[in-house]
Amino acid sequence: MEKSKEILQLEAVNRELQIQLEEANDIIHAIRSGEVDALVVNSKDGHQLFTLKSADQTYRIFIEQMTESALTLDQDGRILYCNSRFATLCTVPLEKVIGMKLLDFVFNEDWIFAQEVIDAAWEIDTRTELNLINREQEKIAVQLSLKVLKLDEGTALSIIITDLTELKKHQLLLQVRNEQLEEARQITDELNSNLENIVKLRTAELELKNEELKIANDFQLKMNTQLSIALEGLKESDDNLQSAFNAAELGSCRVDLKTGKADMSPRFRLLYGLPEFGDIDWHMVLSAIEPEYVAEVNQVLEACAKSGTPVDSTYPIKHLTSGERKWMRVVGKVKKDKAGNFASVYAVIMDVTAQKQDEQRKNDFIAMVSHELKTPLTSMKGYIQVMQLKAKGNDNGFVVKALDGAERQITKMTNMINGFLNISRFESGKMFMDLQRIEFSAIVEEIIEEYTTTGSNHEISYSGEPGLFINADRNKLGHVINNLIGNAVKYSPINSKIFIECLARDQNAVFVIKDQGMGIPKEDLPKLFERFYRVESSQMATVSGFGIGLYLSSEIVARHNGRIWVESEIGEGSTFYFSIPLDQH
Question: Would the pTM count as exceeding 0.70?
Answer without folding.
Answer: no
